[in-house]
Amino acid sequence: MIQPFKCPKILSQILALAVFFVFAFAPCLQAKDIKTFAVLPFTIHADKDISYVKKGVSRMLYSRLSWPGNVIVIPPRQIEAQVNHLDGMTQDKLIQAISETTRSQYVLSGSITQLAGAFSIDAKVFDIANKRYMAFFEQSKQEDQLIEKVDRIAAAINQQVFERSTVTWEQMQQERQKAINDYKRRNPEHLMKMPPGYRQEEKIGWKVWKYLF
User: Rounded to whole angstroms, how far apart are CA atoms 72 and 6?
Assistant: First the structure.
């Protein structure tokens, strides 16, 4: 009669330990891949009080940049408390300090500037570990379109920084392609040229953040 195979006691113990370590440390191994992101309150340069926009921008970016299992965005209230505590620092030192206190790998700094009735929205995402940043830009002709434009910046950040495609990003790509096609139909003699004001994607890339050296 064939006897059933029995694992030696030591082998059974090794297998049990292996299973224990896999389950015990799996969450830690997964956490290493999760990025941490901090959004500084935007600086507003306008001839009237639009502080409500500042709060709306923080909430919008927190919502749009959060990506369960991939990107954790520090809550706006926590960032505001840290910024108030670090009041008086230069922008570059503030970015470094926020990164350290919140353990964020990425820090976003931005501003909204009113010019002749229109608004310019500028944002930079700083990759702290690699000492570099990526810049993003949108324009708004009306105040009530600012949050919508910030949503577009968030979509661009998701795609350019984290390679994450969103509904807003897909819409932007469709608009971009439509603008190119319309331009080509109206200007057949310039088929190889891009529409005025067109910003090629390859120009949006990482740049060295010299202040970290």
Answer: 47
**Run of H or E residues at 137:** strand 132-140
All structural domains of the chain: 33-193+204-212 (3.40.50.10070)
Q: Which two tokens stand for residue 64?
A: 């749009």
- Rounded to 5 degrees, what are φ and ψ at 114? -90, 130
d(C-alpha 160, C-alpha 205), whole Å: 8
Give the rounded percent of residues in the chain with a pLDDT score beyond 70.
75
The answer to whether the beta carbons of residues 128 and 96 sit under 8 Å apart is yes
pLDDT band at 69 (very low <50, low <70, confident <90, very high): very high
Cβ contact 155:142 at 8 Å: no
Predicted local confidence at residue 22, as pLDDT: 46
Q: How far apart are CA 181 and CA 176, in angstroms?
A: 9
Structure tokens at 33: 């891949």
CA distances from 177 to 28, 138, 153, 170 (A): 42, 18, 18, 11
Helix 167-186 × helix 146-162 angle, to 10°: 100
Task: Confirm if 167 and 154 have CB atoms less than 8 A apart.
Answer: no
